[in-house]
Amino acid sequence: MWRKSRNAVQAEEEVYGHEYETPRRPTTRYQPDYREGLTSQQVREHTQDGWTNVAVDPPSQTTREIIHENVFTYFNLIFTVLAVLLCLVGSFRNLTFLPVIIINTLIGIIQEIRAKNTLEKLSMLNAPRANVVRDGKTLNVDSEELVLDDIVLFKAGNQICADAIVVDGEVRVNESLLTGESDEITKKQGDHLMSGSFVVAGQCFARLESVGEDSYISKLTLEAKAMQKGEQSEMIRSLDKLVKFVGIALIPIGIVLFVQGFFFNGEGFRNSVTSMVAAVIGMIPEGLYLLASVALAVSAMRLAHKKVLLHDMKSIETLARVDVLCVDKTGTITENSMSVNKLVPTEEYDKENMPELSKLVGDFVKAMSSDNSTMEAMKEYFKEGTGAVPAKVAPFTSAAKYSGVAFEEKAYVLGAPEFVLREDYDTYRTEILTYAKRGYRVLVFGSYAGVLDGKKLTEKVTPLGYVLLSNPIRKEAPETFQYFAEQGVEVKVISGDNPLTVSEVAKEAGIKNAEEYVDAATLETEEDVKNAIAKYTVFGRVTPGQKRQFVQALKEQGKTVAMTGDGVNDVLALKDADCSVAMASGSDAAVQASQVVLLESDFACMPSVVLEGRRVVNNIQRSASLFLVKNIFSFLLSLFSVAFMITYPLEPSQISLISMFTIGIPAFFLALQPNKEVIKGHFLTNVFLKALPAGLTDVLAVGALVVFGQTFGVGAKDISTAATMLLAIVGFMILYKICQPLNTIRVIVWAGSIIGLLACSIFLPDLFAITGMSSKCIMLFIVFSIATEPVLRYLTLLVGGLKGLHKKVFHKA
């Protein structure tokens, strides 16, 4: 019994891409009776020997890893080399960029550690738990407290937390997280349960065969929780591309500028190094990537305080970009709790024998396990029975859509009308739809002449009565769905219930176009699914496999899809969606498969998650254009200097002054501003097109100033100071545009930045290499200052025109 079945080994090899290692063998093994479980002494022995179910790897980065990642970066290496070069030539005042780099690195470390600690604390609230039998008692413990040979009770909705073998009972499990196949497999006594699979129906007692490092559950859980760095959001991908391009380009440009200044322009070693460093520093978007990371970390912490747990920070942006939201009826539109409203006998049944029918149902539900909310509600309502002893029980499955109990004389089934009545459904259709239109969930209870095997019914069912159930609509649901409608987010309701019932519930919740519904059982081909998902809003009688098909079809149509769910039947779709949202009150499997977990299972907080995402992305996009202006200018001016054999006119300290007051400080405050705008277009394209006019204006103004300055014999220091002031003017012009629409805080940020730059120029001129200008230089400075406004205006119009032309050509193509 120690080794796994070959099927389990093969499945795990397919998932993880390597051969399964033989588990270590403990010196002592126990085979306890499932009713008694291990004794406290046996649990202590296995715990002391290390045979616990503790995950081998930590679920998140350690503090040491966070510090290492933030300190030892490529650009920190570049800055270190530049700082060493400046120290070698004694240009210490040009080290003004170092405090900014150090502070930025510290902020990154502090914010990530704070976010890590907050998320870890909240993760503890949602840690997977299990029901274990010890000393003859059933205890609910953290799954990591389980030990080898523990007897665990598994019910529908539970994820199998370690490799186990069934010792009593029967369950149907879904192994899709390991094999990718959604078929439900019946597990009986002696069968193996694979860690990472989850129970769909029934309940059983199982003995743990492999735990901790010998079990794959830790790896599966970590895979679901991990940030999946290879699947970054568009914003992070765009920043990566920008950083990679700059990182490659700055090395040859820096070398060429130094060689040109030192060997061809006759500049001394000190001046050549200083001008080269200034050009390279200007090209590096040192604060942009950090701003994005910090902003996402801050958002994760904000949401954490609202009881929203993020397994993946990129999901903030993804959810903000969503244009289709797929939701389930139960737990999202309605409360999780379900109640039986009444039992209605069919025309075939004698209504005077209503008490007998109620007792028949009572016998039926008494034989079933309380493994779902429907059965729990029925057990609460039908408490009386005749005392009949069941001979066989067929638990409910999402595939068959019914449950059944065989007694000595007769067998009975309970389930969805279409699946129970089949070809006889049309006979009772009108009566069933009457109840469905009132928002009831209708189940048919009837006698069955065939053999119950858990598969689709083959023999005729004689309906005896209708069980009418309902879930109350969540109070906040209408307001929530109204918000999504206003934001242009299309809602698709995907449920396993009767489509008419779901449609009525969706209407009551205020979902737009809720009257457009379809029975998913009629969708037979992929083409049917694609056409239906584009046309309808409500989908009833949906199978787990179809949920996944719907999500895939929407993504193929170019939609950004968010999927919410709380049941085991939602897991496949959750894994495939662009952004997955789970209710913490739902199954362990759904929670682990999702990127966002609503810890209080309150769907009403979804708008705040979307708004947080929009605030972050729009504000980073707004601030990023400020950073890119400097990068475009420095890159193009470097090429200009190489082409015209001139020395780069600015010093590093001057670049630091401009960056501080036209980029760094205002960008930080603007990133914290509210922003509810819908995210449009691609991140890098939007940022680049906003920054390009100002970057070109800077290059034209400073390039012309240098050429005219040399022509009129103006000194290099005067030109350097004038160029700094010109850049500041253009910087404040673009900052003014970005601050639109103005409010009190934005006016204070804009005006404060101007005052700060002037104060530093007046009171700290030596630190930032600001000198007095000659009369010739002042005249040139005034002329080019006046010219910057129309140049910026016309370049903005030109870029806007080219953007519009590109759109027309692209759409025609």
UniProtKB/TrEMBL annotation:
InterPro entries: ATPase_P-typ_cyto_dom_N, ATPase_P-typ_P_site, ATPase_P-typ_TM_dom_sf, ATPase_P-typ_transduc_dom_A_sf, ATPase_P-type_domA, HAD-like_sf, HAD_sf, P_typ_ATPase. Its main location: membrane. Gene3D superfamilies: Calcium-transporting ATPase, cytoplasmic domain N, Calcium-transporting ATPase, cytoplasmic transduction domain A, Calcium-transporting ATPase, transmembrane domain, HAD superfamily/HAD-like. The keyword Translocase applies. It comes from the Bacteria. It holds the Pfam family Hydrolase. Residues 15-24 have a biased composition (Basic and acidic residues). Keywords: Hydrolase, Membrane, Translocase, Transmembrane, Transmembrane helix. GO terms for molecular function: ATP binding; ATP hydrolysis activity. Residues 125-221 form the P-type ATPase A domain. GO terms for cellular component: membrane. Its EC number is 3.6.3.-. Residues 1-32 are annotated as: Disordered. It is a multi-pass membrane protein. It is found in: Membrane. The chain crosses the membrane at residues 71-91, 97-115, 242-264, 276-298, 624-648, 654-672, 692-713, 719-736, 748-772, 778-802. This is Putative cation-transporting ATPase E. It comes from Clostridium scindens (strain ATCC 35704 / DSM 5676 / VPI 13733 / 19). The lineage of its organism: Bacteria, Bacillati, Bacillota, Clostridia, Lachnospirales. The gene is ctpE.
